[in-house]
TrEMBL record:
This is Histidine-specific methyltransferase SAM-dependent domain-containing protein. Residues 21-319 form the Histidine-specific methyltransferase SAM-dependent domain. GO terms for molecular function: methyltransferase activity. Keywords: Methyltransferase, Transferase.
Length: 320
């Protein structure tokens, strides 16, 4: 693109669209119906998620932003100079930019996101706003792993904000961290935002806001299936449900069938009993020690941790 600034580079690691139909047909064919959470984020889903972040019940985004603003200088101090910052799930790059502003002489900014439009806009803007900084936008699903474009030398710091690590199960989170640990190499670091265990009422409210934005976000998955996979889901025949499971320390989000019905997707029929559920997402919560133990099991050493005064959220600095 001729309009891109010279310090902007685009890397396409798109996993391919054919995965969606495969995942949906396989997931709806199971006894425990499920669709992987990454498919919640089409254009509408990504916009709805940005709206979730502004709901009064959803404390995660504003708590993490305050904590980052407060602690950016300390984080930058531990990270040291000339860091190459890799942001996983960069979205609007708001949090990555907070860190970039605090870091001493960062060597590169490498935002990674699955949403092409959001990534392109945010990364181009970062390249314009920091003309001396190489910006390597990577369009990829960071969950599946990919080769990182690694310009020049310098410590690599991965940044995984928003408690997105919570959307993995504990074994998946450990696997994800261990994979990146090997990729970061000696001297590498990982900065991870992690939501903390708290009273059930607060957690459940955060995932079922009064304005109904989270419900719309979950139901949008059915709209996407109807549009992209020739489905005939009636959105009014399903409802959003978010419950905390104390044995897994996770909010589990399901779509629940309001009646007995048959739905067709890609020409295949799927039967639903009344009350039958599709699992669409889980959001795991940790205590500080529990997350540090998981990081250690993945080969990292916890260097520092910051929490807000109400102990809602934590930011961990891990080193290889
Ligand atoms: C992206 N992720 C960290 C969000 C969460 O809190 O688990 C996704 C979300 N789903 C419903 N509300 C928010």
């Amino acid at each position: 693109d001729l309009k891109s600034p010279a310090n902007f580079h685009w890397h396409d690691r798109d996993p391919g669209p054919e995965l969606f139909s495969h995942a949906v047909l396989e997931g709806l064919g199971r006894t425990d119906k499920a669709v992987p959470f990454r498919f919640l984020y089409d254009k509408t889903g990504s916009d709805l998620f940005e709206q979730i972040c502004r709901q009064p019940e959803y404390y995660i985004t504003r708590t993490e932003l305050c904590l980052l603003e407060d602690k950016a200088a300390e984080i930058a101090d531990i990270a040291g100079p000339s860091v190459r910052l890799v942001e996983f799930g960069s979205g609007e790059s708001r949090k990555g930019r907070l860190l970039l502003e605090a870091l001493e002489d960062p060597a590169a900014y490498i935002p990674v996101d699955i949403s092409k439009a959001a990534l392109g806009a945010a990364a181009r803007q970062a390249a314009l706003d920091y003309p001396g900084l190489p910006v390597h936008a990577v369009w990829a699903d960071f969950r599946t792993g990919f080769r990182l474009p690694l310009p020049d030398q310098g410590r690599i710091a991965g940044f995984f904000p928003g408690s997105s690590i919570g959307n993995f199960t504990r074994p998946q989170a450990r696997h994800f961290l261990a994979g990146w640990r090997d990729c970061l190499g000696e001297g590498g670091a990982m900065i991870v935002g992690v939501d903390l265990i708290k009273p059930v009422a607060e957690l459940e409210a955060a995932y079922d806001d009064r304005a109904g934005v989270t419900a719309a976000f979950t139901l949008n998955l059915l709209r996407r299936i109807n549009r992209e996979l020739d489905g005939d889901f009636q959105l009014s025949a399903f409802r959003h449900e978010a419950h905390y499971n104390p044995s897994t320390f996770a909010i589990d989000i399901h779509l629940v069938s309001r009646c007995r019905q048959t739905v067709t997707v890609c020409g295949q029929a799927f039967d639903f009993d009344c009350g039958e559920r599709i699992h669409v997402e889980s959001s795991h919560k940790y205590d500080v020690e529990g997350f540090q133990a998981l990081a250690e099991a993945a080969g990292f050493s916890p260097q520092a941790v910051w929490t807000d005064k109400n102990h809602r959220f934590s930011i961990h600095f891990l080193t290889v």
